[in-house]
Amino acid sequence: MQKTSVPLPNVATPSLDALKAFAVARNVANTTQDRDQALGLYRRALQLDPQFALAHADMARMHASMGEVARAREEWREALAIPQRLSPQEKQSVALMLMQYDTPNSYLRQAREYLALYPDDYLVIGRIGEIQWHHLNDFGKAESWYRRAMRPQYERTGLTHYRVGIALLGQERVDEALVEFARSRRDGFSGAGEQYAHAYDARGQHTQSDKVYLASATGRSGWHGEPAVVTWIDRGLWPRAVQAAQAWATRVDATNDGLESLRARAAIATVIVFSGEGDAMQALRDLLAAIDAKGAETDAVYPPTTTELRLYAGLLAARRDDAAGVAEALRRTQGSREVRDYPTVAQLQQVVLAEQQRLAGKPQAAIKRLAPMAKRDTALVAVHWALMRAARAAGDEAVARTQSRWLATHRGRIFAESTTVDVLRFFNAAVSAEALRVSSEKEPDAR
Q1: CA neighbor of 143 nearest in space, from 122, 126, 113, 167
Q2: 363-400 CB burial, b ≥16 within 10 A, e <16
């Protein structure tokens, strides 16, 4: 204990050394989120106590926080396979964590029933906030749930402040977001830094953004992987964006992570489509071929994957005014249960349908479809983009300018929006950067 200076949690294991390893691992997960260090310590705990069910559960949370869905599900199942070492509450909690990849409504229903029995489970309370963020695109409700978890007795208060910061960023309350991000650092949480950094990007303060990101555990080696793609797209550094996306794809292919591999290929296609550097048609073909090859595998892990990615390919085709690509995306996703069960996927389908109407010479129909959606705080960034394009096609410059201005000024939402399979973030960065450039070109030189 003197060596680690970490309090021992009240969990079931007969091995004091396993408990010590578990305690240090959990502290790492709650502060620096150093993946390899935390997982190594959890594995050490399992070597000392192979029946340590909560070590499996904690490993699952670590994998989940890194977007490693298949590994997370596997570890939660390992935990549930040792029921004699879990209390009744722990069994329900682990089962609920495993359910988070099911439909959002089913998860929320079960979570509320669970909280009626165990109202002080701040982990589950925080997870409901994640569902509001990722699946419902509702930053106001996400903030409310995160704040419910902000209690002194909760060991993840630093992470909770960080999450509140993201929710505030998504509501354009950037000053408040920066306060929460700074508070999370003071409370010992340095594991994540991307959204903290992007709060400065939202203001155009890229030097400060880089400084904040480098100070995080994930950013100590500089911008890389997915965060680098978003950052370089936003800053208009297209060669660096495509290089980062390709390096990300190479890395995840080596780990056989099908979901991350598809996301990386969506990033590559996005960069090529928007930059005009490279063969956009071939990039989209490569993305669709990868979806065909890995779709069954990834849908078994996370059901909305292929539906959202096919619609995303349709969105990129629409950006190129490729009516055939749009039609194919809609055809391949017609009747999909995931459109019904995942609200942000349903919104994306409506955007692609509106783009199909625009391309068919029916921009007024597209406006009628999109205008009610754009009035909601939960509207995707892509809704505003498609409404702008439909309005321009219809000759309604007032609406087009309003939507273009929204894209240029809602910089917090651009970065914070992170929905379902989480590929729209690349598109969001690109369309906002375009709107900013147009806005800058139209401003008088004396601005």
Answers
A1: 167
A2: bbbbbebbbebbeeebbbbbbbbbbbbbbbbbebeebb
Q: Which of 93, 22, 90, 12 is nearest to 51 (CA)?
A: 12
In whole angstroms, what separates CA 93 from the centre of its chain?
23
User: pLDDT at position 4, please?
Assistant: 46
How far, in Å, CA of 381 to CA of 58, rounded?
34
302: DSSP letter: S
Backbone φ and ψ for 36, nearest 5 degrees, come out as: -65, -40
Enter the pTM of the model: 0.92
Contact 224, 245 (CB under 8 A): no
Tens digits of residue pLDDT in 422-445: 999 999 999 999 999 988 877 554
The token pair that represents 325 in the structure block: 């690509």
C-beta of residue 47 within 8 angstroms of C-beta of residue 13 = no
How far is residue 147's CA from residue 161's CA, in Å, rounded to a whole number? 8
Question: Which residues fall within 8 angstroms of residue 244, CB to CB, at 6 or more apart?
Answer: 223, 224, 225, 228, 229, 232
- pLDDT, tens digit (0-9, with 9 covering 90-100), for 372-407: 999 999 999 999 999 999 999 999 999 999 999 999
What is the rounded average pLDDT of the residues 108-115?
A: 96
Going by the DSSP 8-state scheme, the letter that residue 83 receives in this structure is: G
C-alpha to C-alpha distance for 229 and 319, rounded to whole angstroms = 19
How high does pLDDT run on average in the chain? 94
pLDDT of res. 444: 52
Distance in Å from the first CA to the final CA of the chain: 61
Q: How many whole angstroms separate alpha carbon 172 and alpha carbon 166?
A: 10
Token digits of residue 125? 């309370």
What distance in Å separates the CA atoms of residue 49 and residue 46, rounded to the nearest whole number? 5
Count Cβ atoms below 10 Å from residue 328 Cβ, excluding itself: 17
